[in-house]
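I would like you to sit down with the record closing this message with an eye to the fold:
=====
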Amino acid sequence: MSEQTQETAPSDARRVVVAGAGMAGVQTAVALREQGFTGPVTLIGAEPHQPYDRPPLSKAVLLGKAEDSAFDVDFEDLDIELRLGCEVLGLRPADRVLDTEAGPVPYDVLVIATGAEPVRLPGAEGVPGVHLLRTLDDAARLRPLLAEKHDVVVVGAGWIGAEFATAAREAGCVVTVVEAAGLPLAQALPAEVAAPMARWYADAGVELRTHTRVRSVEPGAVLLDDGTRLPAGAVVVGIGARPATGWLTGSGIELGEQGEVVADHRLRTSAPSVYAVGDCASFPSLRYGGRLLVHHWDNALQGPRTVAANILGEAAGGEPAVYDPVPYFWSEQFGRFVQYAGHHADADRTVWRGDPADQAWTVCWLRDGRLVALLAVGRPRDLAQGRRLIEAGTPLDPDLAADPARPLKSAAR
């Protein structure tokens, strides 16, 4: 902490415990210090590694361009106690106790930031050669397989599947992607938007098999439902993720339909002095008129600032900080930089900027004449301008917005 922060920060005897040492947990602890909290802060992580960022796992770490992606945070200097290799097991809100492998941990304020866990392929658990890509250890196990240029089968053509296929092709592997839906990213994007992206696989030398399910996995091979047997030195499963909240069973914390912690507009849970942030929590969005569950890096970066502000505000009696972001994420796949901002589910008009057969294009979603979401492929300026337009709720002229030669902001009415 800086000398100025130490001199001006109010004293606070409350003990804040953060369960989860990923992006959301780390940023919560850091934000508390940045906003002037001087009480004890304990950060608990299930993995033994120094807390690290996840996006590089499917890129630089996987390809051996970096050994790890540890956060550049001096926890000792910030007086943040780290307890690593310590899994959380349960919660007793009435006693204000978090149960862990190492024993009970009392708290005055608890922040749940345990993130999400990958969905596993039924019947494939314990089969040699089947991998997930969620942790640093996962990337470490996969890296030598790519270096040896094994044949790779990727199950799932979502964001992680596409990113891993990109890295595997860069490493020189023969890659086949198996997808149960008819298009990649079928759960995330409308068919008309996902369809042009399907061509990227063939252009990169990746075989994409859609409308195809895995019947079984055996050492060295994947058997498909049509009887095809694919050789596989490695099988990587990327069929989604779900909130890592099983440990909250029986705690009384309200969970949603997808198992996520149900938080309010201040990211408070149903239990007193317990907050939830990041991939494990949903929150109500006034901007979009519904509850959002966002499994992306930016949400885990932004939400902690709201949590920290509200923890400090509890004692100071300040105005509540409301969390209502414009969701944002990005993906690097097949030589393209793909960015998305907003939430398009309730859009009533789609506007294209550019030809999706080209290397760079953008699709905009409008509702009642206002931009609510956009997907930009190789057009970062569109994304930056569009995000600001969404935040401001600015009406757009759809005809002007459709001209890719014009700055998107010039379409504002």
